[in-house]
Amino acid sequence: MASQVLNFVGGNVLSGVKGIIDEFHLDPAKAAELTGKLQDSITQQVMAAADIIKAEAQSQSWLPRNVRPLCLLVWALLITVNQIVPTIAKLWIPTLQPIPLDPWVYKLTALGFSGYVAARTYEKKTGSDN
């Protein structure tokens, strides 16, 4: 899974950096060296994030193991309440409207839930869940 994240993040970052390198017309050897260093840096960051998530999941305390699912749950409840409460309350307050949310909020929520479901599915298939 870390390699998929690396491909997604690294692909976007690397394509942007390659465009900048091409714009400055660097020596191809120097450009390859810079791209390699960037790729190494991205790999290290993704692996560090994966290590943190593994450490949280293996913690003996309930809070570190459950903080990510709880944050997703709270986020989803806030979005749901933002839509449901004004809809029901319109019976008494006709001018009440939901708070307008940017589309990135919904995309971030979908991405978070998709990632969580994929990670849990992977854990269950490999038998690494508790």
Structural class: mainly alpha
Helix content: over 70%
The structural domain count equals: 2
Q: Sheet with the most strands?
A: none
Measured between the Cα atoms of the first and last residue, the distance is 19 Å
Low-pLDDT windows of residues = none
Number of helices: 4
What would the average pLDDT be, to the nearest integer? Answer: 76
- In N-to-C order, the SSE pattern is HHHH
Structural features, described:
The protein has 130 residues and is an all-alpha fold. The chain is built from 4 helices and no strands.
Name its key features.
4 helices; 130 residues
Task: Give the structure's gist in a few sentences.
With 130 residues, the protein is mainly alpha-helical. It is 81% helix and 0% strand. The protein has helices at residues 2-24, 28-57, 62-89, 103-126.
Outline the secondary-structure elements:
Layout: H1 2-24, H2 28-57, H3 62-89, H4 103-126
Helix pairs in contact: 1-2, 3-4
